[in-house]
Amino acid sequence: MANLPTPIRPLARLAEALGSPALDLLVKLDSETGFGLGGNKVRKLEFELAPDRLEGITCLITAGGPQSNHCRVTAAAAARLGLRCVLIVNGPEPETPTGNALLHRLFGAEIVTVPERQDRSTQLQSTAVDIELEGGHPLVIPIGASTGLGSLGYAAASIELFKQLTNQKPPPERTVVFVASSSCGTLAGLLLGISLLKLNHVLLVGVSADMSATEIEERTKQIACEGADLLRWNGPLLMDSIKTIDDQVGGGYGLSTAASHEALRMFALHEGLVLDPTYTAKAAAGLISWVRTGMVSDLDRVVFLHTGGHPGLFT
Prior knowledge:
By secondary structure, this protein is of the alpha/beta class. Helix content is 40%, strand content 18%.
């Protein structure tokens, strides 16, 4: 499904605007994976929806928020595969769907609403049982496709990224990669990838969109271990190479902050890049904070992993 490899390019104008014109600042554009308007979920779903897992399947079921990027790409994949799709979404049915909520419906997904986020998992399983009783054969995809299997998409992406970086300037002392983190599958895959490659000079910074830094780290390790088990790889995970931060969460999931609004505006104004308010704008705010406070320097190479999600801007 994905258009790979996704491009990588410098952010020289942004670095200059941040007062660090000599900083080696780049963006990896996973916003341009293409399918279903792209984003990081495409790479994960390529593994979750592998042909052998789809044998006999009649319906894809997953869950997320009303503006879920994962639900968008799952619904698009179901449409392409000719499968029924049911999405478990928290919150009331919108009078006029916009953004991803509109795309969910355009792709033909059936929407089942539940009151709260914590209600989604139970409804996911009960809906699967109902479909089986009707004679269907559902495939349940966990929220965000953030599983050991889904994480392999970002283990592969990690290899892709560092292959691209070898064609850039000579390697610096440290490469710092910023990525938005919530369900943790992307960060877990990156962790698994750098561990497979034994890249001790890399620091992965997971910027939380909702959970505490401790929860992000624990969930990331769990998923990365599941991915390693699938590969039958028992080498050490480079846990010292990840740093999770929750100082950009603000009022909570999906709620913009002054810093995320500034980051969204700066990426657009100086680089022509569109971020989303829920995930990438907060990750970009974390990056900007690190540049301004000297947490990264001109001795580092800094990469912003743009995970997409721009339909969320139009809500």
